[in-house]
Amino acid sequence: MEVSSDYAVQMHGIVKRFGAYTALDHVDLDVRKQTVHAILGENGAGKTTLMNILYGLYQADEGDIFMGGEKATITNPTEAIKHGIGMVHQHFMLVENFTVTENIILGDEVCGAVGVLDMRKAREEVMALVDEYGFDVDPDAKIEDITVGMQQRVEILKALYRGAEVLILDEPTAVLTPQEIEKLIEIMHDLIAKGKTIIIITHKLKEIMQSADECSIIRRGVYMGVVDVKNSSETELASKMVGRNVNLTVEKTPAHPGDVMLEIRGLTVKDERGIEQVRELNLDVRAGEIVGIAGIDGNGQQELVDAITNLAHSESGTIKMKGIELTNKTPRNTFEAGVATIPSDRHRWGLVLPFAVSENTVLERHVDTEFGSGITLDYAKLREYTRELIKRFDIRPDGCEDERMSGLSGGNQQKAIIARMVSSEPDLLIAFQPTRGLDVGAIEFVHKTLIAERDRGTAILLISFELDEVMDVSDTIAVIYHGKIVGTFPQGTVDENQLGLLMAGGELK
Ligand SMILES: Nc1ncnc2c1ncn2[C@@H]1O[C@H](COP(=O)(O)OP(=O)(O)OP(=O)(O)O)[C@@H](O)[C@H]1O
Ligand SMILES: [Mg+2]
C-alpha cells in the first residue's frame, strides 16, 4: 500500500521478536481516515502486540509507522498521545477509589496560575466532553461504584481528553453486556461522524459485521490481507483467519442425564455490603448434562459460583455434591468433592502470572503424589505432562511450558485454565464465561470439549453472559434474575426473545 494522507495510520513491514520467538513477521496495517478498522486473528496472533507498538509500549524490531502520510517515530505512550493516538486496553487501568474526573485528568492535570490543580476547570472540561459525545457518565462518581460499561466510557473520555484522533480499542466488548455492546457501537459510529478514526480488536464476528468498514487479518504473526466488510460474511472472516472452515454452530447429540451431582436448595448469599445477591435459589445439575445459566451480569452469578466453591459464605440453604454437604466448607473441600471451576476472572482466581506455564497446570494438585511427594515437585514429569496438555488444548506457542504465564496472550491463558480444570477429571465442572476472549476456532474447541466431558458423564454448570452460547451448548437452560432462577427450559423449547424477556425481569405470557 502506498503511503498517503488518506490514511490516519499506516504500519508497514512490522517485525517484533520476543527472544527467539517472532510474534510479528512483516505485518502491514493501513487504516483509512474516519473509518472503523477491525483487526482479526486467533489468540496469540499478535494483535495486542501490534497495537502496543503503535501506542509506543513496545518497539518494533523492523518496520515503519506513518500518520496521515508522514513518518512517525513513537518510542513511548507520551509520543503516541502527541501524535493523537489513544488506547483503551484489554484490561482497564483506572484507579478504583478516584472519581471519574480524577481518573480522566490523572497524569494530565490542568494547573492554575500558582501550579495547583484546578479541579473546577478540569471538571468543566470533562463535562463539556461528556456533553459533546452524549455519554451517560457522572463525573463525580467513584470508579468502583459504576458499571464496567461506564468505566469503559471513562477510558474513552480519557483518551479524547488528551486529544486522541485515532482510538485503539483492544477487545472492548469482552466485558460488556449485549445492551452495553449496542451502546458502544453507537458511540463508535458517533465518533467517526465527528472525524475520529477507530481501530478495534475483537473476536466477535457479528460485531465486526455491525461496526467495521474494513478488517485486517493476522494469522500467527503473518499479515493475511484486508477485507471490505460489507462484501464479506462471518463465515468468510472466520475461515480467512483460522485457515480452515470453522463450524459456527454447535453440534451435539441428546444428553443422557444420570444421578444428581449438584443439588442446591434455598440458597441465599450476601455480598460484602450485606445485600442479598442470591435469594432462595434452587438448582440441580445431573451427571451427563449441561445446565446453562442465562442472565445479565450482576444477577448473582458470581456469588452463586463463589458459594458453591466456598469462596463466599452462604447465609442460608444447602449445597450438596453427590449427597454430601458442601455448604460453608473450604475451597479445598470443594475440590476434593470433585468440583473443578473455570473462573470468570482468570487473573484473580485462575492463574499465577509470574509462575511458569507448567507450574500453573497443577496449581491445586501439587500435593498429589503424581508430581512428587508433598513439597517438592518432579519437574521433569511435570514438564512432560504440561507438554501433552499444550498439544491437546492447542495452547500457543507450542513448547511454552517453561515460559511465564504472563508472556502468553489472553486467549492462551484462558486455554491453559481450561486444560488444567478438564484434565483433573471432575464430577462437576463449573464453566464461568469459559470462552471470554477466545477466538472462534478456540470457542469451537471449548464447546466440543464441554460436550465431550458431558458425554464422559461429567455434570456441567455453564454460566455465561453470552445468550447464544447458553442456548447452543446447554441441555437445560435456567434463567437467573435478581438472584433467583425464574425459569427452567429444556433446550429448544424457548427462543431468544423469551429468554431476553425473563433476563430483564419480565414474565412469559
Ligand atoms: N512481553 C512478552 N514476552 C514474551 N512473549 C510475548 C510478550 N507479549 C506477547 N508475547 C507473545 O507474542 C504473541 C502474540 O501475543 P498477543 O498478546 O499480541 O496476541 P493477541 O493476538 O492479542 O491474542 P489474544 O487474542 O489472545 O489477546 C503470543 O504468542 C505471546 O505469547
Ligand atoms: Mg490480545
Describe the structure.
With 509 residues, the protein is of the alpha/beta class. It folds into three domains: 7-242, Rossmann fold; 257-338 and 427-509, P-loop containing nucleotide triphosphate hydrolases (Rossmann fold); 348-425, no CATH class. Helix content is 32%, strand content 25%. The chain has 17 helices and 20 strands. It has helices spanning 47-54, 77-82, 100-105, 119-133, 148-161, 178-193, 205-211, 234-242, 301-308, 331-336, 346-350, 357-360, 379-392, 410-422, 440-455, 467-473, 496-503; strands spanning 7-18, 21-32, 36-41, 62-67, 70-72, 85-88, 166-170, 197-201, 214-219, 222-228, 260-270, 276-286, 290-294, 316-321, 324-325, 339-342, 428-432, 459-464, 476-481, 484-490. Strands 6-7-8-3-9-10 form a six-stranded mixed sheet, with helices on both faces. Strands 16-17-18-13-19-20 form a six-stranded mixed sheet. Strands 2-1-4-5 form a four-stranded antiparallel sheet, covered by helices on one side. A hairpin with a 2-residue loop joins strand 9 (214-219) and strand 10. Helix 14 (410-422) runs parallel beside helix 15 (440-455). The longest helix is centred in the middle third of the chain and has 16 residues, at 178-193. The chain is globular. The N and C termini lie far apart (58 Å). The model has no long low-confidence stretch (mean pLDDT 90). The structure holds adenosine-5'-triphosphate and magnesium ion. Magnesium ion (MG) binds at residues 47-48, 90, 409-410.
